[in-house]
């Protein structure tokens, strides 16, 4: 995109933006939480809606001049309800962590017990992990996955729930490569009279596109970011059944936030419109097809994958057998133009800032039009990159970088000017 005003007013920042545009164009982005948004979503985030304050909700504002803002937010709400089959939608949370915090405010008191997936096992900080405010203000109890399968043991979840009697049970996470069994979690939540919260931040686009089962009608409350697989702006939503709607809205405003970011709300509306199209369903299914093909190729090259593969967009690789720490591999792959993140794996003996694994995903490359036929090449690059990281072979990384740049140039990314 052209940025004449920024270039004129702040050339230093303009250079950084242009550099980032080029970097996103040239590299193979495999971080599963990242994606490319459409030009329409980008345009919506830069509109004059930025200029408005709109504390409250449509028809119940504390500011005048909302004649156009109310319809924008209503549009986003109605589209969210339609795409996800929800009774209620709140599109005001600023991001995923504040959305989860609003759920705590709505349904728990400080000191109450919450049950969530352990962070090292694939959960999220805001599911009651100790370093998070949710773990400091509430009593977090964690479930994990089994060593043998890398899958959730529902007998363990049930036993913990019966023993600890949590107010909230979270399912979902940031490094969960398998289908989330919402029905099984719901059965346990009902037994202990807990509110079941499905955090679908990573898989919202897959749910919207029918490539992953829906959390409804099993979950009482659903939280999600609006970026990642959903290909919207950096924002969040809370979806719920009607019986939990009032508590959710009150927790978001005035409980945690002031005025919503109206330009983000508009971009969410655009993204939800895009997600309602048949093309998006094809996209969501292609994400999964690509991830499964990539996982199979990596397995064929001797990589150890947590749970043995994937059902969704995400692959978690344990590099212990490759004799390369995850951080070393991630940084080497970055120099090769392959962008991943280092990540803990279940039962990781290494520290979180220097873990054994890397986490990869296929949303971004799928947005560029890559399909299963390209996954052998991607797997080969990862294999060569990891070997080069172990050997300290910078020339090999440079050769991969050139090959990556050549392929990316043939598959332009949505929303990018280069």
CATH-assigned homologous superfamily of the largest domain: Type I PLP-dependent aspartate aminotransferase-like (Major domain)
Q: What percent strand?
A: 5-15%
CATH topology of the largest domain: Aspartate Aminotransferase, domain 2
Helix share of residues?
40-55%
In round numbers, the mean pLDDT is 97
Oligomer: single chain
Going by CATH, the architecture of the largest domain would be: 3-Layer(aba) Sandwich
Gross geometry: globular
Uncertain spans, ≥5 residues at pLDDT below 50? none
Number of strands: 15
Helix/strand-derived category reads: alpha/beta
> How many strands, what sense, and barrel or not for the largest sheet?
7 strands, mixed
CA-based gyration radius = 22 Å
The CATH class of the largest domain, by name, is Alpha Beta
Within the largest sheet, what's the order of strands?
4-10-9-8-7-5-6
Span from first to last CA? 8 Å
- How many DSSP helices? 16
Total domain count: 2
Main location: cytoplasm
Pfam family, one: SHMT
Keywords: Amino-acid biosynthesis, Cytoplasm, One-carbon metabolism, Pyridoxal phosphate, Transferase
Enzyme class: transferase
């Amino acid at each position: 995109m052209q940025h004449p005003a920024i270039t004129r007013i702040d050339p230093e920042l303009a250079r950084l933006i242009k550099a980032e545009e080029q970097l996103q164009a040239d590299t193979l982005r495999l971080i599963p939480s990242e994606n490319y948004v459409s030009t329409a979503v980008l345009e919506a985030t830069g509109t004059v809606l930025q200029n408005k304050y709109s504390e409250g909700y449509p028809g119940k504002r504390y500011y005048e001049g909302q004649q156009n803002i109310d319809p924008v937010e209503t549009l986003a709400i109605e589209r969210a309800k339609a795409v996800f089959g929800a009774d209620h939608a709140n599109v005001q949370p600023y991001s995923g962590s504040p959305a989860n915090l609003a759920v705590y405010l709505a349904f728990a008191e400080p000191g109450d017990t919450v049950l969530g997936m352990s962070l090292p096992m694939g959960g999220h900080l805001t599911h009651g992990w100790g370093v998070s405010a949710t773990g400091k203000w509430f009593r977090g109890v964690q479930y994990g996955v089994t060593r043998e399968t890398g899958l959730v043991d529902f007998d363990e979840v049930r036993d913990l729930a019966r023993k600890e009697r949590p107010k909230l049970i979270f399912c979902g996470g940031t490094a969960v490569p398998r289908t989330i069994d919402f029905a099984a979690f719901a059965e346990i939540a009902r037994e202990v009279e807990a509110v079941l919260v499905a955090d679908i931040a990573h898989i919202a686009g897959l749910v919207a596109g029918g490539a992953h089962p829906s959390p409804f009608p099993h979950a009482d409350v659903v939280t999600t970011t609006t970026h990642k697989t959903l290909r919207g702006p950096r924002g969040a939503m809370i979806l719920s059944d009607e019986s939990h709607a009032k508590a959710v809205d009150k927790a978001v405003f005035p409980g945690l936030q002031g005025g919503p970011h109206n330009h983000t709300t508009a971009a969410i509306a655009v993204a939800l419109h895009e997600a309602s199209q048949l093309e998006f369903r094809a996209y969501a299914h292609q994400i999964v097809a690509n991830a499964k093909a990539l996982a199979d190729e990596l397995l064929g090259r001797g990589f150890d994958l947590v749970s043995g593969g994937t059902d969704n967009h995400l692959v978690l690789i344990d590099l212990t057998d490759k004799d390369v720490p995850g951080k070393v591999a991630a940084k080497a792959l970055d120099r090769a133009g392959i962008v991943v993140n280092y990540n803990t794996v279940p039962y990781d003996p290494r520290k979180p800032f220097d873990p054994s694994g890397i986490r990869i995903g296929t949303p971004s490359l799928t947005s560029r039009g890559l399909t299963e036929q390209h996954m052998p090449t991607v797997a080969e690059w990862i294999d060569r990159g990891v070997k080069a990281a172990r050997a300290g072979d910078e020339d090999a990384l440079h050769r991969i970088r050139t090959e990556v740049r050549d392929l990316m140039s043939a598959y332009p990314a949505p929303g990018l000017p280069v």
